[in-house]
């Protein structure tokens, strides 16, 4: 329950955000989506509850504009995003408060718009509206948006976001890149996230949805997602891991894929025939439609033990023009070019910052992942995140506390401005449900040591914003520069969180 003073500050923050834009501003225009499932950077998101059955099982869900996944938000480089979010939630079997995080967007000088409840903003209450107004001029590529309030996005509030680059340096490699080549992978649950969160133990997804369609064991033969291609053309498929928990091994029967983008960063092209995609990760791959005209299975094998392709589960369809309207009979593979994260190198400005030795950054942190059972808490350096009585950003703006006193205690790390930070992650004891991904808000980072390897790479390591930590006994090391001031979230899995406060705060 929010105190009166906290509520007043939250209302002030909401009023300030709303004052940044009028929905009738002639320079922005009224909300008129070009298609029900495609929006521009100026848009309205209506967050409400509806009964849907994406895999054939009816359940109440938390949706954006009544669809799952949420509408694709399309923008061009240097566009300004002005997104009005309306909380119209009424189903109290799921979280009723909301917020929207723009996953992978740096939010320079707009930390307040990062969308993390209890870190950068108060949650948006039912019947309230909040306006996110931001730019990210240096960024293009594949991103996504989702609720960052409790575990709400597991109930459906998640969707893709793409910033197109008219001067893409790799545009010569593909012919088609549009809303029809965006592929979302997500786990789906027949039970609300509140009920699932009360379970101590492993929770299995009921189905995998590819672009919002799937099948579950014993369920009806629901229509699956079909991706149409024309023979001879080269397609840029933007594949997004929108999962709440699962990782996926993504393949297309009979086709190889050339990776050209990782988490919004162009990379030197690498050809593979399978890609592990963890929650929050994104890859752009070029696929040439050079096989005989037919239907081919697109497969997203999940990381849980109950995964199967029987009856079209965990699959979608790649359909060549002229192929019959039926399920494929293609066989998996061949798998000859295995994925290796160490082979991914930035196309632009490669190289990690600082002295090329582990432990030689300006600030060196060791973060140990742990687990406490009971009550089933994930830990970072033996501390489990709890929502503070007031969002971290509002604590900073109030000036009432020194950064070392910010709440929640033990979960806020104060970092100096414009310094090189190295974080080494390790796992203590059993890794429950792992490997798990780590996501840092407000920044990309260079992965100078990947999971499963003792080798380091400071010359041209992969640059991304989500990295898998591997298993107990392995270390993953990242580097980044504190050049984007504000409190930024670093979190592992859906429920394990650690805000990082970058000093010399600038908010406009």
Give the tags.
single chain; 508 residues; mainly beta; Immunoglobulin-like; six-stranded mixed β-sheet; 3 helices; 31 strands; 36% strand; globular; disordered C terminus; Cupredoxin; metal-binding; oxidoreductase activity; disulfide bond
Residue runs with pLDDT of under 50 for 5 or more positions: 1-5, 14-34, 503-508
β content, as a range? 35-45%
Structural class: mainly beta
Anisotropy-based shape: globular
Strand order, sheet with most strands: 11-10-13-18-15-16
Whole-number tally of structural domains: 3
Organism: Paxillus rubicundulus Ve08.2h10
Family: Belongs to the multicopper oxidase family.
Signal peptide: 1-17
Keywords: Copper, Disulfide bond, Glycoprotein, Metal-binding, Oxidoreductase, Signal
Give an overview of the whole structure.
Residues 50-167, 179-323, 386-491 form the Plastocyanin-like domain. InterPro entries: Cu-oxidase-like_N, Cu-oxidase_2nd, Cu-oxidase_C, Cu-oxidase_fam, Cu_oxidase_CS, Cupredoxin. GO terms for molecular function: copper ion binding; oxidoreductase activity. The protein is mainly β and 508 residues long. The protein folds into three domains: 38-164, Cupredoxins -  blue copper proteins (Immunoglobulin-like, Sandwich); 182-339, Cupredoxins -  blue copper proteins (Immunoglobulin-like, Sandwich), CATH 2.60.40.420; 363-507, Immunoglobulin-like. The protein is built from three helices and 31 strands. The strands form six sheets. It has a six-stranded mixed β-sheet, with no helix packed on it. The longest helix is centred in the N-terminal third of the chain and has 16 residues, at 4-19. It is globular. The relative contact order is 0.12. The model is unreliable at 1-5, 14-34 and 503-508 (pLDDT under 50).
